[in-house]
C-alpha cells in the first residue's frame, strides 16, 4: 500500500483551505454546482480522535471540514445520542462497568434491506441516558497509527450537545459548518415507542429548535412534551449557520424526512440492487437530493460488489429497471436526475482503501481503473464530479483538494 506523503508546505495549504474553498474564481468542477467537492468529516475526525467525541468534532472544524457528521441513536428513555454503532462494546468501556452487566443482550433487526444480528453486547436502545453517560469512548485499537492518548477521556454526546458544538465552532472560528446527521436503524429505535415515527420526529424537533430545519408537514408534537431543549447561544450579527442535510439507509425514513422538513436528504445505500439501475435512480430522485453509495460502486461496479457480499437479485427485475449502471457512468446518471453525489468512506492514507479491484476483482468499466494510493483515488473521484465525500484525515483530503484545484486551473488556462 502506498502512503500519501504530507509535505510541510502541504500543511500550510491545508490551514488556508477554509478561506480557499469558495474561491474557485473561473474554475468549474464537474459537480452539480460547479464548485469544489465538499468534505464531510466522517464521525468528526476519527483519524486522530475517538470518533463522535467532542474533540473529534472540534478537530474536524479546525482542519477545515465543510460538514461534520454525527450518527444518531435513541436511548431507552428517549434521548437522542451520538454513536456509530447501535451496540456499545467496540468503542466504549461498557464491559468494565459492573452495574451495567445485566443489560448485555442479543438483538436482530433490519437495516438497509439486510438483517443484522449482534449478540452478547450492550445496546443504546436498552440504556437510559444516565447509564450511557457512565461510559467513556476509546479510539479503535486495531489501527495502530491512530493516537490512543485520549481513550477514556470523553463521554457519549447527546444530539443537542453535538449541535451546540457546531454552533460554537461556527461562532468561534468565524465560518459556517454543515450538519449532516445520520438516523441509524429507525426500525430498531422505534420499537416500543408511542408511534412508528417517534425517532424521526424527535430528530426533526431538535434540528428545528437549533435552527437547522423547518417543519413543512405536521408532526405529532404532543408525544414529545418531555423533550426539554436548551436555550440557544445567540449568533453574532455577522455569523451564519451552515447548511443541513439528513442521512439514512432506510429509504422509507429518507422519504419521510424529505416530506416533513425543508432539509435535503442523503439516500445512503449499499445493499439494495434496484437502487443502482436507471429506473431505480428515478425512484430515489422523488425524495432524495443526494445519493450516497459505498465508493466501490464507482470503481469495481454494482454487480461485482453484490456478488462479493453474497447479495442476490432477480435478473429479470434488474433488466426491466434498465440493468446495473456501469461504475464509470454512475456519476453522470445521478447528476442527470438532478441529484448530487456523496460516496463513502475515504480513509486516512495509512489504511487500506478496501476496493475489490485491489483483491483481484476486475473493474466493470472501460478504463479498468483501480487506485494505487490516496492521491490517485481522490483525483479519480474529483474528476467524476463528486459533490461531497466522506473523509478521514481531513488534512490530507484538504491538501489533495487544493492540489486538484491547482491542476484544474493549469488545465483551464491552457485551454483558453
UniProtKB/TrEMBL annotation:
Enzyme class per UniProt: hydrolase
Organism: Coemansia thaxteri
UniProt similarity note: Belongs to the glycerophosphoryl diester phosphodiesterase family.
Any GO BP annotation: glycerol metabolic process
Name of this chain's protein: glycerophosphodiester phosphodiesterase
Domain GP-PDE: 37-377
Origin: domain of life: Eukaryota
Keywords: Glycerol metabolism, Hydrolase, Signal
InterPro entries per UniProt: GP_PDE_dom, PLC-like_Pdiesterase_TIM-brl
Signal peptide from the UniProt entry: 1-19
Alphabetized PROSITE patterns for the sequence: GP_PDE
